[in-house]
Amino acid sequence: MRITSAVEILENPKKFPSDRKNYKLIKLENGLKALLIKKQGNCKDIEHNDTISYVALCIDVGSFEDPFEVQGLCHFLEHMVFMGSEKFPKENEFDQYIKSRNGFDNAMTECEFTIFYFKVDTEHLHGALERFANFFISPLMSLESMFREMEAVESEFQNNVNNDVHRVNQLFASMVRDTHPASYFTWGNHKTLKTDIALKDLYFIVHEFRKRFYKSNRMNLCIQTSLGLEAQQRMKNVLRQVKNEEAKNVYDIYPAND
Ligand SMILES: [Zn+2]
């Protein structure tokens, strides 16, 4: 392990001899780990090309951390960070930025982790990454946006209510004892995010939940790009702004899980 200007160089992942990509695993001073992948000159990869860059971020928190009384909170938070940041305050600006630059983005909340990912024209990677990083540096998550995003979560729920996979999952969940997070309704909907909780309580709890769990030392980032070292340095300068913030205990309002 080497340490250069507060960036720790970690041991590279093992790879197959036929794998022509170069890997570099680093840990920034804020604890965020990043795997930088660069293709070698004669690397042939039918799915990926040099003009597109790929980014994925996995955060070590999922729906199992939802308070019992606010089921769907982690999924709701995943939606809320898209709704503007101090630096880029327009709602869904990132989404529009990506889609107008030959890209695609999405996110998913699982039981024990949350993943955000996107691809974009390489020449716009830095702009995309700056907008993306600000999801986690200073998201606004205003009351007005919360109101709108509740509708988006409800709409996802309604679109999937007849999906057999989700129905079976919820059937299994119903067999688990109530206090165990595997029994939760992790999706969230109007009932759990609107009817059963006051808006001011939801506002407080989603902000504190973010500070408590969307911390840089819980984040693992992966970037595949053809850009060189100078660009990587610019990326690091953006990513090191993600903080480990102090948070009030969200379970002070609602008790922790057993
Ligand atoms: Zn969703």
TrEMBL record:
Pfam family name, one: Peptidase_M16
Cofactor entry: Zn(2+)
GO terms under biological process: proteolysis
Boundaries of every Peptidase M16 N-terminal domain copy: 48-172
InterPro entries: Metalloenz_LuxS/M16 (IPR011249), Pept_M16_N (IPR011765), Peptidase_M16 (IPR050626)
Keywords assigned by UniProt, alphabetized: Hydrolase, Metal-binding, Metalloprotease, Protease, Zinc
GO terms of molecular function: metal ion binding; metalloendopeptidase activity
Superkingdom assignment: Eukaryota
PANTHER family, per the entry: INSULIN-DEGRADING ENZYME-RELATED, NARDILYSIN
Family membership: Belongs to the peptidase M16 family.
Name of this chain's protein: CLUMA_CG014853, isoform A
Source organism of this protein record: Clunio marinus
